[in-house]
Amino acid sequence: MRNRILRFVIYGAVGVVTGLIVAGVVVLAEKVLLEDILHRSLWQQAIAPALGLWLAVLLLRYSDAGHPLSPSTSEEYIRGYHNKSHVLKVIHLPFRLIAGVATVGMGGAAGLEGPAIYAGATTGSAIQRRLSWLFRDKDGQALLVAGAAAGVSAVFQAPATGVLFALESPYKGDLGRRALLPALLSSASSYVTFVLVSGLDDDLPFEVRTDLVRVGFGQRELVGAAIVGALCGLAAMVFSRAIRGAKQVQRTQPWWVLAAAGSVIAAGLVVLSDLLFDAPLSMGPTAEGQVLRWVLNPDETLPMLGMLFAIRLIATSTVIASGGVGGVFIPLAVLGLIIGRIVGGWIDVGVESMAFFPFIGVAAFLAAGYRTPLAAVMFVAESTGAPSFVVPGLIAVAVSQVVVGSSSVSEYQRDTRVGHLERRFQMPITSAMKRDFQTVQPTDSLSDFVWRFAFPRKQLEAVVADNNGEFRGIIKVSDVGDMEQDLWSTTACSEVMIAGLTPARLSWTVREVSARMEEADVDIYPVVDTAGRVVGVVTDQSIVNVVELLDETQGG
Predict the structure, then answer these.
(1) pLDDT per residue over 184-217, tens digit each?
(2) Is there a contact between 538 and 432 (Cβ–Cβ < 8 Å)?
(3) 105 and 26 in contact (C-beta within 8 Å)?
(4) Domain total in the chain
């Protein structure tokens, strides 16, 4: 009980530390740097993202004694979740955080949620390593998740979103429950800490006023939500491929060439967006809310909205390809906002509902890009305070998940979780194989099998092999019992045995042999070598025994 209470205290402490770190990052990037840059002249705005990229790239390249750090942040959390050998080192944390501040604070089209998630996950992982006597492996993973949840909670001031995102993001189609309570504790404590330090902001991270979204929904809105979901799913496929392609470019091309090219493109996008929209809408997560205000303007045309979508997609891809540090959560939300507004303008729902479809688009695009449907809906509902978004949001998210397929912005997400029992079925067949066994020969009579083999050994099934040890089939007492006993002495086992089965190989897993046993309806199965000779057998009881043994030795 004492250790249990201590662990809960530590979960909360992870949230407090993460909240303090994120508060500092947000204030420095958004309040000090970005806010100042967005009020400067056009030429200063144009060169700012370039300077931020160069600073981030150089910092990561020369920070670790000649071993360049990757610009990944939230991906480090997902990678560390699946790979215990991938350690999130505290020594790398300040470099990636400063690089994130430089990238986003100087106008890069990325989000601070990436550095925030990385900060929380690194904090949780570091505490687990130093207190290994208190945390078992499964608790260590929970601490990692708790830290990531704390990061999202602080940066978005959305504690429920933090919990769901941290639980959903490691997998495309699954949700972990073991880390739920630690994530709740860390997320709540991080949120409280952030608010105490930075104050409570009633707006969305991209400055949405709740009075814009107090709308109801009817049949037209529900149909529109499905359309938004379909378009967001298609667009998210494009965005995911662009981001993963940008990451590949970043890893394979000379860093200085990418930094130079990225600087030119970023500067050009600032100038272009200022000419088109009279505001630098390509900069920062949302150009301090200017993107939102422009998108929700009912006078803006659909072609111009499409141009903004393209500019934002290119701007974010440029940041990633050039080696800048930042997340894609907010860029995804912005693109979804634009698609939702396009659908709203096409359906012509009226000015009073103009904000409805954009925020449905936020949920749908987030869900399709990161494959986090519950977190996406919760983010919109929690941030806007408008419960009317939940039902149409769920519809849009469901459709977007179907359309997007297996695409994701993350390289390290897995499709589904390998569960408690599933992990055990992935064991090699040798872990459940019995090498002490006897076989029945094809020429043996049924009487010999029943009276000299089966009954004395209390074994109702047997593997049939010839004199050379080559597998021939499986014989069952139940099949022999279907024949008249008078025929047992004159009938060979070869006439009754189950033939035509493919024996298991030493390279198989327990799952593979279990599937063959179920298909053949047998409780015993042969394992052969490369020459086809039987070297062992697997039984249903041997599988049960090894699973129970692992449960005892590994604590379930």
Answers:
(1) 889 989 989 998 888 766 545 544 444 444 455 6
(2) yes
(3) no
(4) 2
